[in-house]
Amino acid sequence: MNDNLRYRVPSEGVTVKQGSFKSVLASEFKNGFIICPFEGKEGFWFEEGSILDNKEVHFESPTCYSKAEYLGKANAFIDEIVEQSLSKAIFSRIKEVKTLYNPVEIFERLCEAYPDAFVYLASSDLFGTWVGATPEILVSGSRDELKTIALAGTMKSNDASAWGEKEILEQRYVTDFISETLTKLNIDNVARSNSYDLIAGPVRHIATDFQCRLDAVSVLDVARELHPTPAVSGLPRKSALELITNIEATNRELYAGYIGILGDNSKLYVNLRCAKLIEDKCFLYLGGGFTKDSLSEKEWEETENKSRTLLDILEKE
User: Fold this and answer.
1) Helices H, strands E: what count in the chain?
2) Of the candidates 176, 178, 170, which has an alpha carbon nearest to the alpha carbon of residue 149?
3) Mean pLDDT of 269-275
4) Which domains are assigned to the chain?
5) pLDDT tens-digit profile of 169-206?
6) Euclidean distance between the first and final Cα of the chain, in Å?
7) Which residues share a beta bridge with 76?
8) What is the b/e burial string over 257-287, where b = at least 16 CB atoms within 10 angstroms of the residue's CB?
9) Can you tell me whether residue 275 is helix, strand or coil?
10) Statement: the pTM of the whole predicted model exceeds 0.90
11) Where on the phi/psi map is residue 315: left (φ > 0), alpha (ψ -120 to 50), or beta?
12) What is the chain's alpha carbon radius of gyration, rounded to the nearest angstrom?
């Protein structure tokens, strides 16, 4: 498999890089394009101009739950949230679909359809071939002006309904987590916006923006401390991660990790609305925020709504 990297930052042109991905500790990421999987300890750094010893690697299809299997696991997930008194936890699944388009065509169609998303196509024998169009910034900017965003709640973008208590509470958890994390890192002069609706293609979310200046810590320090945010893990984070490991029983791989450019003007995104491509199949990774009041059927519908970001591209003639 030839290493392939192309990406499009919102409001910028497409960048195509020649080189290869290297496996590194996440704490030792160098400036450049990086990918950190959900697990977070090791990741991938793209070395431009490096010579690749190509190998043919076969990737097995990940496990995809049927609706009945999902509902059963989701109900067990909710029971554990109640039993452990968790505020929130994220349960995810994988949806398999076929496509007639090659990876580059999918990338180009995503760029056209979602001008406000970070769109990428990355291939390597280290992790396979992935595409994505994510709206969620983990951190962006520089030490002098770093930005992050609290994003939670999902509703169809054409649904004019008011946000429910569950979605508002979910977003408050993420907002509080970011505030507490920045305080723990001794970052002051933090500016925070009021919450607002953020449209991301076929869905909308509740968002709150943060802006700060860094002194004693780096942009990578902040990214590693924020990851995984409650939007992709839960609260308390340690207990939520243990629950995810026990109930999901699948490897999230690159899904819900972070991806993007580290440097003087960093742009790192939470890797959502993404898919792993194997031959003519796309494996869409989809998650939803669960609380003690969650209904498994409604959570299934939410993941179906989120799948439209990629399905609208894959199914369109």
Assistant:
1) 6, 18
2) 178
3) 96
4) 4-314 (3.60.120.10)
5) 888 888 999 999 999 999 988 999 999 998 887 888 99
6) 28
7) none
8) bbbbbbeeebbbbbbbbbbbbbeeebbbbbb
9) strand
10) yes
11) alpha
12) 19
